[in-house]
Design brief:
The chain is of the alpha/beta class. The protein has a single domain (30-428), classed as 3-Layer(aba) Sandwich (Rossmann fold), CATH 3.40.50.1240. The protein has helices spanning 3-26, 47-53, 75-94, 116-129, 163-196, 235-252, 256-259, 267-285, 288-294, 296-306, 320-329, 375-380, 410-422, 424-428, and strands spanning 30-39, 108-112, 137-138, 215-217, 231-233, 313-318, 352-360, 363-372, 391-394, 408-409. Strands 1, 2, 3, 6, 7, 8, 9 and 10 form an 8-stranded mixed β-sheet that branches. A hairpin with a 2-residue loop joins strand 7 and strand 8. The longest helix is centred in the middle third of the chain and has 34 residues, at 163-196.
């Protein structure tokens, strides 16, 4: 074979490789827009619960000494969210949505539930995401207002709302969820009682074990006329207070032995303690009629942000129960986050539900996923970058089919959102929405 022929073959192969690479490049998804519903980062135990935390433990002095008032974002929580903001700026700059050294706020929007922990989380994320910009955080004034746009409040605003029919169906669905989780809750109670020394506690002196009986109150409005959240009646409320505080202690306290009240707990045992909080959320906010009802205003706000002309990035900071109800309403397939990444299996602290809009040759696609710092990254305040990233988990939704890359057609996602918003009227009639 002559050299000229070898050269022609080489050039032909090179041309094929170049054309193939060009074709692949042409098939790349182009990111156009991001909408994030975020849980706040690490906070102190809720102020309304602090007085009851001592009732369930043998030695109340074993609780972590928090450096901020109850319910507030901790200093560590703020630092963690700055790290997340820095990571997201790097990631979305790599995806071509932003320039990494440009802190323009054009097309960017931040909002939060009007709680200190959510406002402070949004501010901290913005400080990492746009360190040279002054970013306004939109929230309802005064701070602490019960803003329906971000809280999972029972909603009787639909025309012809039938409170009795709604409550009847809600109680039926909730009863099913309680039965499904009864065995897991009982085993989690056993571990919790052992860890906190329940039998020597104030409550333990009155009863031998935590009671597994659970009641749920669906009181749509408070006596003052304000909208209400579903609420638990029974020992699960107290167990949830303890579970929440222990998990926060695990994330904040450097000494794991101290965090575990002197017990050398395995990762699986920490996960079991966290499951009490998960079951509490499931019972209150994942009955379909409740989920669609309480997340209606939240979903309207998200859908509005997805359709603001020129909007490239929206960050909406809220609460774990808000997002848990929202995902249920959108019919996300049930999921358990990997144990090796987090002790919180459903709604880890600071986690983000992300809707990303992509263009591929003129057709629009959506990627819907959760992004969260691992428990180790939180405990160690790990610096995040493109080589050391937070965990990501792609969500799947009943009745929607992703393509080979795991992306959904954008129109399908919009139609699911519209159908969920429309199903709000079914909840007013006491009908199961899907």
């Amino acid at each position: 074979m002559t050299m000229s022929k070898l050269t022609r073959i080489f050039l032909s192969v090179a041309a094929v490789v170049f054309l193939a690479a060009s074709a692949l490049f042409a098939q790349d998804y182009k990111l156009e827009q991001v909408t994030i519903a975020s849980r706040h980062s690490v906070r102190a135990p809720l102020e309304k619960n602090i007085s009851r935390m001592s009732e369930i433990v043998a030695d109340p002095t074993c609780w972590h000494k928090w450096s901020v008032p109850g319910s507030n974002l901790t200093l560590k929580g703020g630092a963690l969210e700055v790290l997340m903001g820095q990571y997201f700026k790097l990631y979305y700059a790599q995806e071509g949505l932003f320039l990494v050294n440009n802190d323009s706020t054009d097309g960017i929007y931040f909002a939060a539930s009007s709680r200190q922990r959510t406002i402070a989380t949004a501010r901290s994320f913005a400080a990492g995401f746009l360190p040279l910009a002054t970013v306004d955080i939109d929230y309802m004034h005064p701070e602490g207002s019960a803003d329906s746009a971000f809280l999972p409040l029972l909603n009787d605003s639909a025309p012809g709302f039938d409170a009795d029919a709604f409550q009847t169906e809600a109680q039926r669905e909730i009863t099913e969820i309680i039965k499904e989780n009864a065995a897991d809750l009982k085993s989690a109670y056993t571990l919790l009682e052992n860890v906190v020394g329940f039998e020597h506690s104030y409550v333990g002196a009155q009863k031998k074990h935590l009671d597994t009986w659970i009641g749920v109150a669906i009181n749509i409005r408070r006596p003052s006329g304000e909208r209400n959240e579903p609420s638990i009646i029974g020992d699960l409320k107290l167990a949830d207070i303890a579970s929440d505080a222990i998990i926060l202690q695990y994330l904040e306290e450097p000494d794991l032995l101290k965090a575990g009240f002197g017990h050398n707990l395995s990762l699986s045992e920490w996960r079991t303690l966290s499951s009490i909080k998960d079951i509490y959320g499931k019972i209150l906010f994942t009955a379909p009629i409740v989920a669609v009802n309480v997340s209606h205003d939240i979903l309207e706000r998200i859908y509005q942000e997805m359709n603001v002309p020129g909007r490239k990035f929206s960050f909406l900071c809220m609460h774990d129960t808000s997002i848990q109800a929202l995902l249920t309403a959108l019919q996300a397939e049930p999921y358990i986050l990997p144990e090796e990444t987090t002790i919180e299996a459903i709604t880890p602290i600071g986690f983000k539900f992300i809707i990303e809009k992509y263009d591929l040759d003129g057709e629009k696609f959506a990627r819907l996923r959760l992004v969260y710092q691992t428990s180790d990254q939180i405990r160690n305040q790990t610096i995040l970058d493109l080589d050391t990233s937070p965990a990501t988990f792609d969500l799947r939704f009943k009745g929607l089919t992703p393509n080979a890359d795991g992306y959904y057609k954008w129109n399908d996602v919009e139609q699911r959102i519209q159908a969920t918003l429309a199903a709000f009227s079914k909840t007013a009639k006491g009908e199961r929405p899907f």
